[in-house]
Amino acid sequence: MSAARRNLASCCVQLYELPIVEHLLGQSFHPGGVKLTRQLASSTLVSPQSDVLDVACGNGNSARIVAADFGANVTGCDYSAVNLEHARISSRESGLAEKTKFVRASAEQLPFAAESFDATLCECSLCLFENMDSALQQLHRVLNPGGRIGISDFFLSAPVPKSLDGLLGRVLCVANAPSVEAYREALSQAGFDFVRIRIVNWTLADMIKRIRQRMKVLTTAKAELNSALPADFGDPALVLADLEKFIASGGAGYLMATARKF
């Protein structure tokens, strides 16, 4: 895999560790937030008897939602030691320590035995992995026969404007997103069947609105905002405006994909 792709993945891990990014994106970094996480868990048939793997779990918010709302046992894995420690603390404080555990791991090299989970979830992260195909093969490997995968992520239908090719555009999963058909083909190639893809663009308007509301609060401390973000992060207001135009033109969207291991 190219050095640029590895650098992007590493950069995103470090960026998601910054407190200012949580202030901008909230506890649920991905579009759709808690509502889409619940839809994804329902669509992958998660139940109190399920063992679930949440890949690129970040601060563990989705893992806690699935454990609390569906009664499942959830393992979260992420490459950020900082976010994993935050996830463990939050789970203990929420009384969910017995239902959740968190492991530092790369999606392309999952440290779990074959056929260990009933469902695997991956929210707004697949297109950031160094090798999406390898990650899907690993997710297929650790699923039990008949187990299901649930993915939410950006997709592209047109070339990305230059203004969205910066760090913020990449962290928002826009710049490197595949097409809808590329997701479908990748899932099939990894060994999944019953691939179902739904367009959930409502999540994007919600995400942009949420970030703008948080930015208004932060403008009272603009110097703090500027100093807390990397120099090449770009102006969030301008990037969001361009992203909104790009989405409205049909150039990008958000999808929810589910499939079964046969």
Task: Describe the protein.
With 262 residues, the protein is α/β, with parallel strands linked by helices. It has one domain: Vaccinia Virus protein VP39 (Rossmann fold, 3-Layer(aba) Sandwich), CATH 3.40.50. Helix content is 45%, strand content 21%. The chain has a seven-stranded mixed sheet with strand order 3-2-1-4-5-7-6, with helices on both faces. The longest helix is centred in the last third of the chain and has 17 residues.
Question: Any key phrases for this structure?
Answer:
21% strand, 7-stranded mixed beta sheet, 11 helices, Rossmann fold, alpha/beta, single chain, disordered N terminus, 7 strands, 262 residues
How many helices? The count is 11
CATH classification, class level:
Alpha Beta
Strand adjacency order, main sheet: 3-2-1-4-5-7-6
* Fraction in helix: 40-55%
Brief summary of the model shown:
The chain has helices at 3-16, 19-25, 33-43, 61-70, 81-93, 132-142, 167-171, 180-189, 202-218, 222-228, 236-248, and strands at residues 51-55, 73-78, 100-104, 117-123, 143-156, 192-199, 252-261.
Detail the topology: elements first, then pairings.
Layout: H1 3-16, H2 19-25, H3 33-43, E1 51-55, H4 61-70, E2 73-78, H5 81-93, E3 100-104, E4 117-123, H6 132-142, E5 143-156, H7 167-171, H8 180-189, E6 192-199, H9 202-218, H10 222-228, H11 236-248, E7 252-261
Parallel strand pairs: 1-2, 1-4, 2-3, 4-5
Antiparallel strand pairs: 5-7, 6-7
Helix pairs in contact: 3-4, 9-11
